[in-house]
Amino acid sequence: MASDAGLVQYIAEQMAGAGNIRYRKMMGDYCLYCDDKVIGLVCDDQLFLKNTPSASENLKGFPMGCAYEGAKPSYVIDNIDNRDFLANVVRQIAEDLPVPKKKKKK
Model pTM? Predict the structure, then answer.
């Protein structure tokens, strides 16, 4: 089941305080980026955030699940209405992740 574009836009707006938030449609669902780092996914209208050291600390008690078959376990976030909470968690997840490597031009 594909995710609703309006919901994804709302989630991105809620995370806006974390940095440069953008999203990209991939096979009916969406990949979320903060400052060009992949921080999570929206699959079947559910938000999944990457498991990083700060996520493990800040998201204790949140369930973990896989966004799709074969995916690494991520935190399932149901509290998308708390803008400050989301922005804080996403900012820390992005800080934990390495800067993406530049792709070579062909």
Answer: 0.91
